Each structure stands twice: as structure tokens, then as C-alpha cells.
Amino acid sequence: MKAFASDNYSGVHPEVMDALMRANKDHAGAYGNDEYTTRATQKFKDIFGNDIEVFFVYNGTGANVLGLNALTQSFHAILCSEFAHINVDESTAPEKFTGCRLVPVSSQHGKIYPDKIENRIQRLGDQHHPQAKVISISQATEYATVYTLDEIKAISSLAKKHNLYLHMDGSRIANAAVYLNQEFAAFTRDAGVDVLSFGGTKNGMMFGEAVIFFKPELAQSFSYQRKQAMQLHSKTRFIAAQFEALLSNDLWKRNAQHTNAMATLLAKAVSDIKGVTITQPVQANGVFAVLPKNIIIHTLQQDQFFYVWNEALSEVRWMCSWDTTEEEVKQFAARLRKLVSII
Questions:
Q1: Residue 56 and residue 132: Cα distance in Å, rounded?
Q2: 9 assigned to some structural domain
Q3: pTM, whole model, 2 decimals?
Q4: What CATH number is attached to the domain comprising 119?
Q5: Does residue 8 fall inside a structural domain?
Q6: What Rg do the C-alpha atoms of the chain give, in angstroms?
Q7: Could you tell me if 227 and 281 lie in one domain?
Q8: How far is 30 from 263, CA to CA, in rounded Å?
Q9: 218 CB-near residues (< 8 Å, 6+ apart)
Q10: CB 16: neighbour CB atoms within 10 A?
Q11: What is the spatial distance between Cα 194 and Cα 214, in angstroms, rounded to a whole number?
Q12: Among 246, 271, 304, which residue terminates a domain?
């Protein structure tokens, strides 16, 4: 069976692979000077508006770090959930490349809220203290929960109140859009987001993310920063061609609808198993659950690898992918049910 460890474990969607094969014919301009990049950029402009700036990069860490770097100087602070990818899964890349202090904010189901954020905005104007400049949120969150439009707008209002920027890590933005049943622009640009990392790798692409600026003036130096950070792909057409495919014929939506549905199915299939407790609302493509500790490592993980999210609680994370099947979900749930019944 396929692993439930991460949506990064899955392969490339056939429609994306076909796009890569088409882009592999003949020669094309380098560093984004090609027809594929032009078309993919226009796809994003059709979604978000013609006045945006779009830049393609290799990976999610590069997208997040560079997007944040464009908004800050090294004496600034970036506020984020204590579980944010930039805080717990991108090593020290954010601090190294931005020079900024990451300020973790306590969260509820992975989401941060204005009252807790405002408590962490401290000593503005004090030269002895890092100056808050950006609030960064993940959509969907690391707990696979999804911010509502009103929640994002409330955070944006707080950011504007304190002259801060709002950054969104959208590595699983397609899953959030499907859950909300909203257009991308509704919960990003229209909700007050300034810079967006738009994910593709976790939704069927081989590699590649996009950094989108909703205020073009913020992107004035970004092309230089991207090059300096070694995120400028010489053969950019291979990132752009994938995004063109992902954003065509609703492929992004079909993939996200499927992954979300598989997570919902998985949660339902295990929810009545004695000793298994679902810990988070299932809103995107991830399921979090507490299991009996003695079955995790020695038995269940040997059959199919997944990550232990919180060792102290025996809380695990199961992620579904575009190629997860109903049969695999049912087989996994049946295996878990059997193991629990014999301990």
C-alpha cells in the first residue's frame, strides 16, 4: 500500500507528466523567457488579477523564505503559529535568510487568532526589541484545518492596524479552496493577504511553487533576491509547464477534492475503533489521531509508514494524496482495527 506519511510521497499526476514531456521537446528560452512561463503567469493573472507579480521557485521553503524576505529587514519579527512550517519544519532557513526573529503564537487546531497575535506584538518603536512586521499564516494549516474568510479578514485587519504585512503559506491552498468552496482570490487577495506562496508539489506536481505579490511594489527587488537565494531555475519552463497543467481543466480542484475526500473517508473508517481518537477537525487532506502507543512503531508503522506528530500524546498524522485510493484507506483502517482488537 502507499504511505500515508505525506502528500510529498506521491508521484507526479499523469496530466502534469504529459505537460513536462511536451515542454521537453525542442529548445526554449532560459530563466523564464519562454512561452510556458508566459502562459502559466497569465493563468495566475486570470485567477488573481492582471496587476499581480508572479515568480516561480523550486520548493516551498524557498517560496516562504523569499516571500518573507521581500517584506522584511533583518531587525524585524515574523509572527506565526507555533506549529507553522516556517517555525518547525524549515530548519533555520527563515532566520538565516531573512535575519528576522520568528515569534511563535499559541494556536487552536493549528490556527492563530487576533487576540493571541496582538499579545505578541510588543515594544513597537523600541530599538532594543525586534520589530513585528509580518504575520504569517498557513492555509491549510499544519493540522490540516482551514481558515475561514472571516478569520483571515480579522487577521488582516489586525495587521493593518499595526502596519504589518500578511503572508500566507499556501502549500496546500488547493485543499483549502475546495473545503471553503471559494475562489482562490476570495480568501487571499480579497481578504487582505499581501504575499502568497502558492503550492504545487503537494497537489500533483513534480516540483515547483509560485510566489505571488498582490502589491507589485513589494516585488521590486524580488528577481534579484530569488537569484541570490539560488531559487531561479534556468529551465523555468519545467516549473511553468506544470503549473499551466495544474491550473487547466480544474486539475488542481479534481486532485484536491479527491485528497480531501480520502481524508474524510479515512477519519470515518477509524473513528469508531476503540482506543483511536481523532484530535483535529478533518477539513483538508490530513487526519490526526491518538493511537495506543504500543501499536504505532512496532506494528502499524512497519506495514505503512506515517509520522508521529506528538510523541508525548501518541498523536499521529495521516496524509492523503491525489493517488490515494478508497481501497487503500479501507485496508489501512482494517489493519488498524485488527491490531487494536488484539492488544
A1: 27
A2: no
A3: 0.96
A4: 3.40.640.10
A5: no
A6: 20
A7: no
A8: 40
A9: 70, 71, 165, 194, 195
A10: 25
A11: 5
A12: 246
